[in-house]
C-alpha cells in the first residue's frame, strides 16, 4: 500500500484492497495492494490479473458502504475464464475504506518515516510496517547514470546521483534522480546516511574517483557495492584498492564488472543488467532463465546475502515452504495516530504483514 500512498492521499476517498495471506503459488506477494478512487479509477494490483475484476467490484462496494470485507480467492478449474488463480494458489484480500488514521500513516510514510499499522476485521488482526525506501547512490554523472537512476526509481529506490564535476551533475541531466549532489563521491558517501539496504553503484571508472569512494564503500555495511568497467579495469582497480589498504576480504564484496550477463551494450541495456543483479541479490534469485530451473518461481527471502554463483549451484533444490501471511521486514517507529501494534508499538522482524487473533 505504501507504493500507492501519494495517489491515495490526493483522493478525497478511496477503498484499498491488500493481500494479507498467500498459500501456494500466487503472482503477487503478501502486502500487494490495489485501490479504487472516488470516480472508479484504479491503481495497483493484487494478482497478475486473475482476480482483479472481482476485487475491483468488491472495492467499489466497500467504497459505497464503508463496510470492510475479507475475501479468499483460489484456484478454479471449472473454466479458464472463471474468477480464480490459474497458477494454483490462493490468497486472502482485505478491503477497507480510507480513514483519518490510515491517511496519517500514509502521510508519515511519504514523509520518510517508518510506520507500523494495524488493521482488524471480525476476529482477525493484520499488521503491516512500511519502511523508508532503500537508497541507491550512483557515483559518476555519465549517460549510464541517467539510465540507472531511472530504473532504480522504477524499482522503488530513493536515488541520488553524485559527481564532483558541476558541469555534469545537474538536475536537467538526471530528471529521474530524487537528488543530484555536486561533491567528491567519497566525501559525500562518508557524510550521508546509509544502512544495510543501501546500494552503491560506481560508474566513473576513473581511479581518482573510484578508489576513494570504493575504499569508503567497502568499509561500510552496505547491501551492494558495484563498479562499472572492463575486466582489465577491474583487475587494475583491485590492485589499486589493495595498495590503498582495503583488506582482501572486503574486496570480495565488490561487484565488478557490475551487472548480469545479458549481452547488452547501450546505457539503457547496461542499466537493466545492473538492475537485474540488484534484484537478484536483494531477493535471492539465481540470475538464470526460469525456463532452465525446476525450483519454485516465488521463493522465500532466506537466501539474502548468498552469492549468486552459490544460488545457481543449488537452484534445483526444493525451497522451504513460506509461513503464510508473513514476509521479511524491519520494525519501525509507531505513527502517533495509529493504534499500538501488538500492544507494544513494535513489529516482529519477521512480520511485515501478519495475521493474528484479536485480543478481547
Brief overview:
The chain is α/β, with parallel strands linked by helices.
What does this molecule look like?
Helix content is 28%, strand content 20%. It has 10 helices and 14 strands. The protein folds into 2 domains: 2-132 and 324-357, no CATH class; 135-281, NAD(P)-binding Rossmann-like Domain (Rossmann fold), CATH 3.40.50. Residues 77-84 and 301-360 have low confidence and may be disordered. With 360 residues, it is an alpha/beta fold. A hairpin with a 5-residue loop joins strand 2 (33-36) and strand 3. The radius of gyration is 22 Å and the shape is elongated.
Keywords:
360 residues; alpha/beta; Rossmann fold; 2 domains; 6-stranded parallel beta sheet; 10 helices; disordered C terminus
How many strands in all? Answer: 14
What radius of gyration results from the CA coordinates?
A: 22 Å
Give the CA-based shape: elongated
End-to-end Cα distance: 28 Å
Helix content: 25-40%
Taking strands numbered 1, 2, ... along the chain, how are they ordered across the largest sheet? 10-9-8-11-12-13
Taking pLDDT < 50 over at least 5 consecutive residues as the criterion, the unreliable ranges are: 77-84, 301-360
> Helix tally?
10
Strand count, sense and closure of the main sheet? 6 strands, parallel
